[in-house]
Amino acid sequence: MIETRKVVLHFPQMAVDRPIVCDLALHFGLSFNILRASISPHHEGLMVMEIIGESEKNEEGLQYLRERGVEIQPLSQDIKKVEEKCIHCGTCVGVCSTEALFMERPSFKVRYDEGKCIACELCVLACPTHAMEALF
Ligand code: SF4
Ligand code: SF4
User: Fold this and answer.
1) Pairing with 46, which of 74, 88, 97, 120 sits 20 to 30 Å away (CA)?
2) 107 lies in which domain range?
3) Which atom of ligand 1 is closest in space to residue 91's alpha carbon?
4) What is the CATH number of the domain that holds 24?
5) pLDDT tens for residues 32-68?
6) Is residue 7 within 8 Å of residue 17, measured between CB atoms?
7) Together in a domain, 60 and 90
8) 19 and 31 part of one domain
9) Which residue CA neighbors atom 8 of ligand 2 most closely?
């Protein structure tokens, strides 16, 4: 059965320069759409993608990536910021690689631009007041 999976891939530094995502098509016959990609200042990579193929081949392809050091998370449907819980401490700004969370000047309020979010959930883990929520 053909299925589509949305996943977040975290590439370690050593894997960023290697075309291992292309191997999904070459070795497993999978199609993919890259929805968002970024490389951190420390050269770790983050990619949000849709993988389309036979469910068995999807799993084999993801296992192939795991064996090469790539961490894989399912993509949350949505990330929400609960304004009433936010104390504008800025912790989430430091972990957000896409600048979806940013400090507004001169108010020093933390704002959320949903359009830039790749649903990596790092802010959900980092927020001390649980103001960032992942909705499935
Ligand atoms: S970490 Fe949480 S409380 Fe702090 S600014 Fe971000 S959303 Fe607000
Ligand atoms: S989930 Fe949070 S840390 Fe990740 S991109 Fe979205 S706002 Fe930024």
Assistant:
1) 88
2) 78-135
3) 1
4) 3.30.70.260
5) 988 878 777 667 788 888 899 999 999 999 999 999 9
6) no
7) no
8) yes
9) 96
